[in-house]
Amino acid sequence: LPETPKPMILLRVLTVSSLLLDYIVVSVEGVDTQSTCEAVRQGTSGRITCYYSEDIRQTHRDFSVRWYGYHNDDKSVAVVTCSWLNVQDVTCVAEPGYTYGEVSNTFVVSIRNVTNQFLGRYACLGVHFAADKIIPCFLNASEELVPPSEIHQINSTYESTTISWRDNNTRNNGTTYQVRYKPLWSDEYTSVDAVQSSFTNFTIVGLVPGSDYNVSVRVLRADGESSDWSTGTVARTK
């Protein structure tokens, strides 16, 4: 008799606001299993979508979605567990913060408000699926950047001004800043990158002596996210 194809499971983490992080294709018991992970912003909704090669309504396999956090071992928590009472009725139990939809060859678990407690590895498991051979995806999240505050001038010369500001975000190695300035009579800003080593101080050079400038700052992150521009402050050269 021909060998019966073994089932496969696809795991994909999707969000409303997302940035693609990784793409992996691996072999699971002779069947390709494909996983994609996307980053989310904290405070937005997210969802975990499981794709099966069969209609679970027809095969009546018990199944679950498990969260591993950032553990390096196989310790996990079932955030949604589903079992069949009979050929028509499936019962699912979800942990707080998770909801779920109908099951067929797909199964969607939603997270309404993604916070730190929801981050980490997820895997979609089912009866007769080898969990140790399924490559899970990571649900990561970034903070929404807020503009710097307390922008003020701390020094000036005839052709330069030094400003400082307060960063209200959690600093990391990918954080840098951008400064923009314009004469008060102008509508056009000039923008310059403030190198990370300067932290929250920056000196603007090449200015006109005895002139007033409107200066504002924003935060940039390595993943391409940026805050809004801060409220401007007036800086004057000597």
Automatic annotation (TrEMBL):
Keyword Signal among record annotations: yes
Keywords: Signal
Any Pfam family hit: fn3
InterPro entries: FN3_dom, FN3_sf, Ig-like_dom_sf, Ig-like_fold
SUPFAM superfamilies in the record: Fibronectin type III (SSF49265), Immunoglobulin (SSF48726)
Superkingdom in the source lineage: Eukaryota
Record's keyword annotation contains Disulfide bond: no
CDD domains: FN3 (cd00063)
Annotated Fibronectin type-III domain residues: 147-238
Signal peptide: 1-30
Protein name: Fibronectin type-III domain-containing protein
Organism this protein belongs to: Batillaria attramentaria
Higher taxonomy: Eukaryota, Metazoa, Spiralia, Lophotrochozoa, Mollusca
